[in-house]
Amino acid sequence: MTSGINRRHFLAAGSAAIAGLTATAAGAQQQLEQFRPGKDYNDLITFPPTDISKIPKKFRRQIVPYEGRHWPGTIIVDTAERHLYLILDGREAIRFGVGVGREGFRWAGLADVERKVMWPRWTPPPEMVERDPNAAKWKDGMPGGPDNPLGARALYLFQNGRDTLYRLHGTNAPQSIGKALSSGCIRMINEDVIELYRRAPIGSRVVVLAQGI
Hints:
- This protein is an alpha/beta fold.
- The chain has helices at about 5-10, 25-30, 125-130, 135, 190-200, and strands at about 60-65, 75-80, 85-90, 90-95, 100, 110-120, 155-160, 160-170, 180, 185, 205-210.
- The chain has a single domain (about 5-210), classed as Beta Barrel (L,D-transpeptidase catalytic domain-like), CATH 2.40.440.10.
- About 15% of the residues lie in helices and about 25% in strands.
- It is globular and about 50 Å long.
């Protein structure tokens, strides 16, 4: 796998560091499409609306300035700050709050979105089946739906045509947003991952910054 990206090099590339990004005016924020809670416009499955009042404001979706070097359409995941950025035209980005991998389950590097799935099926890896009795009953796969831990959408990350086994996906545990609890994948609330799925086509470049670099 590609080695982690040097955070200092990345942040120096733009005139403004990601960590210093602040919300733009309310007018710009209103440009961001908001999904009706619990409603998925792309299929007939509904899900419980996310109570965003329980998510810290810094992890709620918003438009922020971006003056870095990456092209519009690039997805940047800052694992240290627990934020995912989708770069837009006009030197702006959509910033989403995310949950990241816990110690020992982290990954960083460059990848591309090579597969996108609505309401993905979840199959726990063998090591999870061995250590988690709840996962063991789904060793042959759990159908997609509101109770599935992958949530409403999954974007699969590949390097050089090979599956990295890391995903950008939804979650039915919104309290995990802003925390390092997952088995390496990047999780978002369902409303946010639906928005990312809608905007990010196959082939989108994903930059995952290593924590602590």
